[in-house]
Write a structure and sequence with these properties.
Layout (H helix, E strand, L loop, with lengths): L2 H5 L10 E7 L2 H11 L9 H5 L10 H14 L6 E10 L8 E11 L5 E10 L4 E11 L9
Antiparallel strand pairs: 1-3, 2-5, 3-4, 4-5
């Protein structure tokens, strides 16, 4: 068994490999994120105050927007057992309740000696507007699964 096989028991990702995942963002997502984080910024709740900003209305928290990338990384690529070691993200446009967002990742570098993957990342709206972009570095832990799981 080569080094890469021992480090990546479920298969090493390939440079250029891509994955994506979409979901509809709702007002309930704002409420759930507030319950977890305590973020009660009026931009997320006060329509009048939010309308008077350059956003022109209610926007969801950045944590809601970026969470789609957690799902892509953990479920798709690099896959189960993966966690972020470092992210460098820029938020480019607002996401509003009712928007469908798509998180996309593309592998730019893979280490053979450690299960570390570098990714280009982005989140886009249904109309193609990029709302978040940047890079991420992930570490993938080998997981043993229980029989029948």
């Amino acid at each position: 068994m080569g080094t890469a096989s021992a480090v990546w028991p479920n298969g090493m990702p390939s440079v250029g490999q891509r994955a994506r995942r979409s979901r509809l963002v709702t007002a309930r997502d704002i409420e759930r994120f507030t319950e977890m984080s305590g973020d009660r910024n009026p931009l997320h709740y006060d329509e009048r105050a939010a309308r008077e900003t350059r956003f022109g209305g209610i926007v969801v928290q950045g944590g809601v927007t970026s969470a789609i990338l957690n799902a892509v990384v953990a479920e798709e690529l690099p896959g189960p057992g993966s966690v972020f070691l470092r992210v460098n993200w820029s938020f480019r446009a607002p996401v509003r309740p009712g928007d469908t967002i798509t998180g996309e990742v593309q592998v730019t570098k893979v280490r053979e000696d450690k299960p570390i993957t570098e990714l280009e990342t982005r989140v886009v709206l249904g109309d193609g507007t990029t709302v978040l972009d940047g890079t991420a570095v992930c570490y993938t832990f080998p997981l043993t699964r229980e029989r029948g799981s």
